[in-house]
Design goal:
Blueprint lengths: L5 E12 L2 E13 L4 E5 L6 H8 L8 E9 L2 E2 L5 H11 E4 L3 H4 L6 H11 L5 H14 L5 H5 L8 H13 L5 E5 L7 H16 L3 E6 L2 H7 L2 E6 L2 E7 H6 L4 H8 L49 E2 L9 E2 L12 H7 L3 H11 L2
Parallel strand pairs: 3-8, 3-9, 6-7, 7-8
Antiparallel strand pairs: 1-2, 1-4, 4-5, 9-10, 10-12, 11-12
Helix pairs in contact: 4-5, 4-7, 5-7, 7-8, 9-13, 11-12
Length: 353
Amino acid sequence: MSTPLLELHDLDVEIPLADGTLHAVRGVSLTAYAGQAVGLVGESGSGKSLTLRAAMDLLPVPAKITGGSVVVAGQDVTAMKPAQRRAVVSSQMAMIFQDALTALNPTMRIGDQVAEVPRQRLGMSASAARARALDLLDQVGIRDPEQRYRAFPHELSGGMRQRICIAIALSAEPGLILADEPTTALDVTIQAQVLGVLDGLRQEGVGLVLVTHDLAVVSSTCSELNVMYGGRVVEHGSTDVLLSAPRHPYTAALLRSVPDPDEPVHRLLTIPGAPPDLLQPITGCAFAPRCPAVVERCATERPPLMDVSAATAAGHTSACWRAEEPERWPGSIGEAALGVAEELRVVEERVHR
């Protein structure tokens, strides 16, 4: 197999604050290859976005990597000097941010923003960079690129601005794109169009790591899935397997929160309680206080990611002491362990109509 474009090994990210240290990312490992789409899902505050920012060397001050390693195209960049690290990272990866309006420079025409990287980093002439920018605008589905080249960000719709951000990300010819909730603020029609652009790039060989809250999005976009909770990956495997046979109660609870499009919704299913306080040490499983399947051991021993592929599929891991007995999980999470992939498929099909 080819060398992964990105490898995270036991990554830790901490944020020193006035009232303590927030341990935001705790031992996260992840691998992404060219032409592969990898998903990161979980509630807000689970560490998804900071994981991407750590990989891109874009952590906000005062956050810092305190453990583990970041390997980009076979090179461990963790201990490199900042300038060298940025050069290696930016030559292989690019990032798309959640809010396209704030990611774009409001004082620059969008064509100049797309052409900036080809000029400054790739050394193209002004005319060659302009031609490259026009080609990228066309590639991401911007109609009439010549006219849109001269527009300012506020003159474009949300979907078009997100496409511009994708074009900027592609302008340095990266092998891997890290996308932090790129469709959150878009309506379902525009969301489907943006996801179509990203999937088209993946089919051309560009790798994708996608952070999202939307399970229907990952079901249609990603082949591999990582579920994060409390700063850790609590379940990993192929998307099809995790959505049809989850082996962590948190994954199952997320799946049951997706409404059935064929049934009247009187009340949305939620996960009781609140995510853990990452300023405090976590003893045992972080999900234990909210978990319907909790047992005594969960409160005192932290479960590692364990291989559960014997009952599902190769590469499936779960950080749950009861992963091997989902038939004994109570209530709705037990139902989810029996499979809700068909509901997600129906939701995804309706979104893309």
